[in-house]
Design a protein that fits this description.
Arc Repressor Mutant, subunit A, 33% helix, 2 domains, mainly alpha, 246 residues, two-stranded antiparallel ribbon
């Protein structure tokens, strides 16, 4: 394995990689490992929502995390993610609130009340074959290790959270359709560079929604849009009156 030679031993000076908050109470809960990791991912995202002030009229923190991006981040099928979300909701660890047609749900991450270690979960059947159902109906289960992964899973352009690469920052969803993803640093830089950045974000959000087009880097795309829409400078004025024209 190539990665094996890239690993190092920990010392007093070793910097700990970016990690997810994994609450101890999850260890004692009757949940699948996917559901537990999903909860840790949502809890991490909720901490960012709290910093950015994403809360409702009751001061409850919410998360906007579309299933397509959850599936990419977890390297799981959409169906598997939906099942894990249902598990968390049945356990009382998650509440989903619909926003309306074509808009992503608001996700409310819940934690056990003080002094309570876990929530009861109804009995579930666990497969011992280590297989995962594919997203499409009619296909046979494929072993997870043998499943061919789409390039979109290997080169995810819309990682809201990357836990293995510390150079990537947490990204928040912007725009009316919550499909423009920028980190706080990227948004701050764009705000300084482009006066009408908020308008461009809304235009990009609407355009991607209506056309179905996707971009690898939304910050770069917004800069290109701003350059194209900027007025051209230092061009001589060749207009003349009717009498002066040839």
């Amino acid at each position: 394995m190539k990665n094996k030679d890239q690993m190092v031993y920990m010392t007093d000076q070793t910097q700990i990689p970016v990690y997810l908050p994994y609450p101890r109470f999850l260890l004692g809960m009757d949940l699948t490992q996917t559901a537990k990791v999903l909860y840790a991912l949502l809890l991490d995202r909720a901490s960012l929502s709290r910093k950015t002030g994403w809360k409702d009229e009751e001061e409850h923190i919410f998360v906007v995390y579309p299933i397509v991006y959850l599936a990419d981040d977890l390297r799981k099928s959409h169906m598997t993610v939906k099942k894990a979300l249902n598990e968390l909701e049945e356990a009382g660890l998650l509440v989903r609130k619909k926003q309306g047609f074509s808009k992503p749900n608001l996700l409310y991450v819940r934690i056990p009340a003080e002094g309570k270690k876990s929530f009861p979960v109804k009995e579930r059947k666990v497969s011992l074959k280590g297989k995962e159902n594919d997203t499409y109906e009619g296909k046979k289960p494929v072993p997870v290790m043998d499943r061919k992964v789409s390039p979109n899973y290997l080169n995810n352009s819309y990682l809201i959270y990357s836990q293995t690469n510390k150079e990537r920052e947490a990204r928040s969803a912007y725009g009316e359709y919550h499909n423009v993803f920028l980190s706080e640093t990227e948004y701050g830089e764009l705000k300084q560079e482009i006066r009408e950045i908020d308008r461009l974000i809304e235009e990009l959000s609407s355009y991607m929604r209506s056309s179905g087009k996707q971009y690898a880097d939304h910050a770069v795309t917004l800069r290109r849009w701003a350059e194209r829409s900027a007025p051209v400078k230092n061009i001589p004025d060749y207009t003349c009156s009717e009498e002066e024209s040839l």
